[in-house]
TrEMBL record:
Its cofactor is Mg(2+). This is Phosphoacetylglucosamine mutase. Residues 504-552 form the Alpha-D-phosphohexomutase C-terminal domain. PROSITE patterns: PGM_PMM. Mg(2+) binds at S93, D305, D307, D309. Residues 80-126, 147-196 form the Alpha-D-phosphohexomutase alpha/beta/alpha domain.
Length: 570
């Protein structure tokens, strides 16, 4: 393993080892004295309850110190159990600057396993006096060998609160006798990459920033060399970095790939506030460009979110109209390109695209009917899409909001290795595929990596941003939120496309949908906010707006709406 090995200096006197008997035969060695002592320094505000959701824990930064310490403890246990390096990322992604959050990264760079998400919730919510018992319970349930070494890597975003909070994570790791490496400032996908590299003996790449920059840039520059563009088509791109970590890392990286692309950074954190009126989430949800970026007609622009794991593209047409190119269109560009490459190589490898219910109906239709690529739908949240995408030789997954990547099976890598024997044209396609694979971050959706993939494909295909956008026309759609007393009264099935409870809600939605052409609607309880989300699409914006409003009213009536009834108009 590369990099320096860190050891927090918070518990130099943590020498006294207590051995206690737990359950029937599990002998647990934990330094309970040190745990109690240091936990008190990261005390939980009594009564605070948080849940490890789709994006880990997220709330106001001032409420998170105990959570960070405890996630350090949990990460150490997970590392001991898996005998691997695990990661902890301190970030609240696109949330306001005052918030913060934490996510654990499993050994193959993936999201934390579901049973451990539950442990995370229990541990974070245990009152001070119960914390040790919960910790011991987890060790027992998961048969953690506490004698095993633990190694945890830690990264953080640029929020003012992140540095201190990440120190609390490292305190937690240390109290359980674990070691850590503090990467300091990183994008979320960079931390996923580091974890993946460290657990695959360097086969995936070198677990350093330099390693990440070199691997991706080398692949990108190789691909761009194969594009037949003349000098005056020199590629440039405007990037809105949400005033976040993406700006720092892109700036560090740009000279590695500057032969192939020049990036102009906006909202680079030098003045504005993180995620304020900028970033991928703002652009996608308001369907307008970020502040602080001047856009000339037909210029290619993109936005990252606050931790650079999401990306959307956009441009202004000659009439000044704004066009958003979201995750669905990104998935279409990427999967079409990969499918063509596979056809050129002539190998019998399968490709699948994974979306969520939020995918625009036009994208699904285009992929299935025009591109003849099979499309699958999963529940919202990256882990669900990632998991499904692993079933294919090439699995491309994207949420409409811009989270996504592509995964490649070992069968694909084997075929590429054998490509030396192929004829010239096939060999060229195989080489291209090899570089594309290197350019993707297969551990997690990654704004920087996705941006370079997209730029390479556009260059290789000689496509302008408008031509890309014109692949299909999005169906007009509308998203709304409804406040209800308890959003858990809504349960769903069929990848969140149908409501099971409360009774009568799905029937009401069905009746409403019938009134409009090319229409579709669904509702689901949010995993990150205390609201019910409503999505509707139809053949015109007016119809989509009406349908969304009517569905909101049905939710309000049947699912215990609170506050003001949803009003029409947006
Ligand atoms: C989280 C998820 C994202 C999902 C969003 C839905 C990850 C890393 N992030 O941000 O994928 O789209 O939640 O939020 O999984 P919602 O449940 O509030 O609609
Ligand atoms: Mg994010």
């Amino acid at each position: 393993m590369g990099g320096e090995w860190g050891q927090s200096d918070i518990c130099p006197e943590a020498a006294q080892e207590w051995t206690i008997q737990v359950g029937q035969d599990l002998l647990v060695d934990m330094d309970l004295g040190a745990i109690t002592k240091y936990s008190a320094l990261h005390a939980k505000p009594s009564g605070l309850v948080l849940q490890y959701g789709t994006a880990g824990f997220r709330t106001k930064a001032e409420h998170l110190d105990h959570v960070m310490f405890r996630m350090g403890l949990l990460a150490a246990l997970r590392s001991k159990q898996t005998k691997s390096t695990v990661g902890v990322m301190v970030t609240a992604s696109h949330n306001p600057e005052e918030d913060n959050g934490v996510k654990l990264v499993d050994p193959l760079g993936e999201m934390l396993a579901p049973s451990w998400e539950e442990h995370a919730t229990c541990l974070a919510n245990a009152e001070e006096q119960d914390m040790q018992r919960v910790l011991i319970d987890i060790s027992e349930k998961e048969a953690v060998n506490l004698q095993q070494d633990a190694f945890v890597v830690v990264g953080r975003d640029t929020r003012p609160s992140s540095e201190k909070l990440s120190q609390s994570v490292m305190d937690g790791v240390t109290v359980l006798g674990g070691q850590f490496h503090d990467y300091g400032l990183l994008t979320t996908p960079q931390l996923h990459y580091m974890v993946y590299c460290r657990n695959t003996g360097g086969r995936y790449g070198k677990a350093t920033l330099e390693g990440y920059y070199q691997k991706l840039s080398k692949a990108f520059v190789e691909l761009i060399k194969q594009a037949s563009c003349s000098g005056d088509e020199y590629r440039s791109l405007k990037v809105d970095c949400a005033n976040g970590i993406g700006a720092l890392k892109l700036r560090e990286m740009e000279h590695y790939f500057s032969q192939g692309l020049s990036v102009q950074l906006f909202n680079d954190g030098s003045k504005g506030k993180l995620n304020h009126l900028c970033g991928a989430d703002f652009v996608k949800s308001h369907q307008k460009p970020p502040q602080g970026m001047e856009i000339k007609s037909n210029e290619r622009c993109c936005s990252f979110d606050g931790d650079a794991d999401r990306i959307v593209y956009y441009y202004h047409d000659a009439d000044g109209h704004f066009h958003l190119i979201d995750g669905d269109k990104i998935a279409t560009l990427i999967s079409s390109f990969l499918k063509e490459l596979l056809m050129e190589i002539g190998e019998n490898l399968n490709i699948g695209v994974v979306q969520t219910a939020y995918a625009n109906g036009s994208s699904t239709r285009y992929l299935e009917e025009v591109m003849k690529v099979p499309v699958y739908c999963t529940k919202t949240g990256v882990k669900h899409l990632h998991h499904k995408a692993q079933e294919f030789d090439i699995g491309v997954y994207f949420e409409a909001n811009g989270h996504g990547t592509a995964l490649f099976s070992t069968a694909v890598e084997m075929k590429i290795k054998q490509s030396e024997q192929l004829e010239e044209k096939k060999r060229k396609a195989a080489k291209m595929l090899e570089n594309i694979i290197d350019l993707f971050n297969q551990a997690a959706g990654d704004a920087i990596s996705d941006m370079l993939v997209i730029e390479a494909i556009l260059a290789l295909k000689g496509l302008t941003v408008q031509q890309w956008d014109a692949l299909y026309t999005d169906l007009p759609n509308r998203q709304l939120k409804v406040q209800v007393a308890d959003r858990r009264v809504i349960s769903t099935t069929n990848a969140e496309r149908q409501a099971v409870t409360p009774p009568g809600l799905q029937e009401a939605i069905n009746d409403l949908v019938k009134k409009y052409k090319l229409s579709r609607a669904f509702v689901r309880p949010s995993g990150t906010e205390d609201v019910v989300r409503v999505y509707a699409e139809a053949d015109s914006q007016e119809s989509a707006d009406h349908l969304a409003h009517e569905v909101s009213l049905a939710v309000f009536q049947l699912a215990g709406g609170i506050g003001e009834r949803p009003q029409p108009g947006f």
